[in-house]
């Protein structure tokens, strides 16, 4: 079981952000400033050192909302970025990878909003910028319950779940346990890590070594393997009846992914009954960071096809939440 320490958010934002973003294909009109005083007070002080303007812009919008947890009978103040507007398409809920945060979406989220999509960015339980003082055990069931309770409290209509890397495991676990279309309308996976063999020879490493990688070596492949232990205590292909995943799915894959074998993207597409696959050329394991314009277009095109849903009247005051 993996449990994030209260210093996890500080560790996340101490990572180096690229200083220039023009090579990502983003338009310069986003280049507006955010003063340190505009960051939410609950963010760690290291946020002031972020140089990437897109990360600063998104960090300034992070909010904490109370989410009840049915497994522990208490609330956790959960970090997210709320949408600016409601839309007729099903709302996007952007998850993130292991030991990361919603800041992964610093380049793509503004483009999705420009396209008129209602977009939430959400920190998975145990990671990101949520209040970790009363953190429950961060096992699969708790992460699933946290996501469901967030949906039930603030969204309450069919959503499109977007899971990059190990966030795809969170998304699949959720939809398998909540298969009704009322919860999830569509699925989008980005370089998904959902198979135990996805990290190659790391599957032969002893469990303790993998966990040492999480806390000491900071090795991305070891980190991926460590969380795969959490989500793959029994094999996915044994415990998941893929034919029960009825939602339309988009599988996005970086052509040059050196972390997850690209053959697994084809396997995932084949095992999901209603999936299509789109490859991003000249791109590695994190297309939403490396090629945000391309990923934004793929997501937008996918969700806007037959994607209109009714907006409940109870959500009309979303900005007041």
Please, could you describe this protein's structure?
Helix 6 packs across helix 7. The two termini are 33 Å apart. The longest helix has 15 residues. The N terminus and C terminus are likely disordered. The protein is globular. Strands 1-2-4-3-5-6-7-8 form an eight-stranded mixed sheet, with helices on both faces. The chain is of the alpha/beta class.
What value does the average pLDDT take? Answer: 75
Strand composition percent:
5-15%
| CA-atom Rg in angstroms | 18 Å
Tell me the major beta sheet.
8 strands, mixed
Low-pLDDT residue spans: 1-8, 14-36, 199-223, 226-239, 307-321
> Would you count the extended β strands for me?
8
- Quaternary state of the chains: single chain
Helix content: 25-40%
Count of helices? 11
Backbone structural class: alpha/beta
Strand order of the largest sheet: 1-2-4-3-5-6-7-8
């Amino acid at each position: 079981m993996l449990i994030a320490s209260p210093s996890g958010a500080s560790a996340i934002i101490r990572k180096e952000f690229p200083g220039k973003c023009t090579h990502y294909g983003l338009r310069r009109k986003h280049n507006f400033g955010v003063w340190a005083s505009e960051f939410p007070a609950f963010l760690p002080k290291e946020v002031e050192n972020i140089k990437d303007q897109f990360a600063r812009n998104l960090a300034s919008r992070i909010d904490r909302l109370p989410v009840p947890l049915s497994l522990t009978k208490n609330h956790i103040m959960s970090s997210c970025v709320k949408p600016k507007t409601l839309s007729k398409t099903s709302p996007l809920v952007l998850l993130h990878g292991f030991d990361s945060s919603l800041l992964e979406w610093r380049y793509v989220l503004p483009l999705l909003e420009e396209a008129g999509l209602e977009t939430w960015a959400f920190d998975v339980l145990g990671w990101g910028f949520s209040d970790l003082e009363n953190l429950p055990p961060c096992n699969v069931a708790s992460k699933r319950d946290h996501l469901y309770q967030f949906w039930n409290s603030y969204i309450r209509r069919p959503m499109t779940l977007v899971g990059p890397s190990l966030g795809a495991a969170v998304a699949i676990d959720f939809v398998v346990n909540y298969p009704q279309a009322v919860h999830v309308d569509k699925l989008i996976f980005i370089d998904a890590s959902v198979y135990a063999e996805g990290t190659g020879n790391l599957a032969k490493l002893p469990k303790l070594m993998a966990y040492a990688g999480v806390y000491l070596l900071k090795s991305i492949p070891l980190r991926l393997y460590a969380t795969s232990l959490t989500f793959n205590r029994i094999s996915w292909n044994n415990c998941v009846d893929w034919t029960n995943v009825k939602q339309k799915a988009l599988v996005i894959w970086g052509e040059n992914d050196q972390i997850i074998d690209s053959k697994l993207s084809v396997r995932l597409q084949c095992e999901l009954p209603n999936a299509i696959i789109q490859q991003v050329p000249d791109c590695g394991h994190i297309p939403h960071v490396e090629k945000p314009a391309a990923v934004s277009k793929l997501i937008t095109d996918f969700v806007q096809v037959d994607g209109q849903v009714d907006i409940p009247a109870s959500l009309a005051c979303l900005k007041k939440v």
